[in-house]
Amino acid sequence: MAPRVHQAQAFSFYCIIVLSMAISKSNGLTLEFMELLCGRTYTFDTSFQMDSGTGITYKNQLDCSLTVTAPSGHFVLALITRFELEAAFSGTCSDYLDFHNGTDTSAPKLNPTDLCGWGTNIPSNLTSSGQSMTLRLVTDSTGVYHGFNIVFTAVYSEPCTGSDFACANQLCIDPSLRCDNYDQCGDKSDEDNCDSYGGSSSINVAMVAAVAATGVVVLALIVGVVVYKVRDRSRWKRFVNTHIDYDDEDGIVEPPPSYPITHKYYKGVRGQPALYTSPGHHVKVTSDTSAGSSTEIQMTPGSNETV
Ligand SMILES: *[C@@H]1O[C@H](CO)[C@@H](O)[C@H](O)[C@H]1NC(C)=O
Ligand SMILES: *[C@@H]1O[C@H](CO)[C@@H](O)[C@H](O)[C@H]1NC(C)=O
Ligand SMILES: [Ca+2]
């Protein structure tokens, strides 16, 4: 009995964990801030997003470099989702961002001219040739704007291996990036055919089925435990209420039967059992410690007679 109840509890607990994991998974992409990562190499596995800074605007007088490195066999796709730096003045940027094709700022630039201002002169994406790309953000002493947000993704070209997702544009990305509400392919194909809960349609059907099956199993366990308990109790009641004819017509007083009992028949505090007794009967409990832990109950008609 007790093990079954514990199993049901453990199972429910497990279900809650799985559910909360499924929910937290849709909580979005890791967000970093370039201002806080200056001079660093940031390695990542699948994808992350980065804002220029933690404030509403970026800071003045920055010269901040950051190398972003994908796992080997991948290259870095940087998708610019928001961009606003101080506009160029007579053809020269005063605040600007550059992307370099390698592990430091000495690598050739991926953008032919410094990026500043906003609008159509800003490319939607930049791609490194190798595992790493290095960003450099330079700002002067006046004029701060909202800055940028960039989604970085580790990608490689088809054919895709394992369960990696094949984008419509022949790039491969980690399957966890599908339907996470962020475009990581660059053509939004990883966000196609997703439901409003942020799951791909097929994954969500499987999840609903799993949750439903889990519910049925938990319910069946609970019903099973309750039925078992009720049946047990009624069996015990029937047993103690049955009239026992010790002195039947043959005149021979037969010894009262002995019945095995366990602690589950006790009502009341453990160690101080209060037994259910049928009216007119005394109950004597004997513990046979020499033969292990077996406990016996013997019932006698109302008298002082003991066995
Ligand atoms: C980046 O560097 C690689 C060599 O490491 C080169 O083949 C590739 O053309 C470069 N890409 C750009 C856009 O400069
Ligand atoms: C990157 O931008 C270019 C030019 O807008 C576009 O042709 C290309 O499809 C884009 N690539 C990705 C992976 O988004
Ligand atoms: Ca995505």
From TrEMBL:
Signal peptide stretch: 1-28
- Does Magnesium appear among the keywords? no
What residue spans carry the Polar residues bias annotation?
A: 286-307
Tell me the Gene3D superfamilies matching this sequence: Low-density Lipoprotein Receptor, Spermadhesin, CUB domain
Which keywords annotate this record?
Disulfide bond, Membrane, Signal, Transmembrane, Transmembrane helix
Which residue ranges run through the membrane? 205-228
Q: Which SUPFAM superfamilies match?
A: LDL receptor-like module (SSF57424), Spermadhesin, CUB domain (SSF49854)
Disulfides per UniProt: 160-172, 167-185, 179-194
Residue ranges, annotated region (Disordered): 278-307
Among PROSITE patterns, the record links this protein to: CUB, LDLRA_1, LDLRA_2
Matches recorded under InterPro entries: CUB_dom, LDL_receptor-like_sf, LDLR_class-A_CS, LDrepeatLR_classA_rpt, LRAD2/Mig-13-like, Sperma_CUB_dom_sf
* Residue ranges constituting the CUB domain according to the UniProt record: 38-155
**What is the official name of this protein in its record?**
CUB domain-containing protein
What species does this protein belong to? Elysia chlorotica
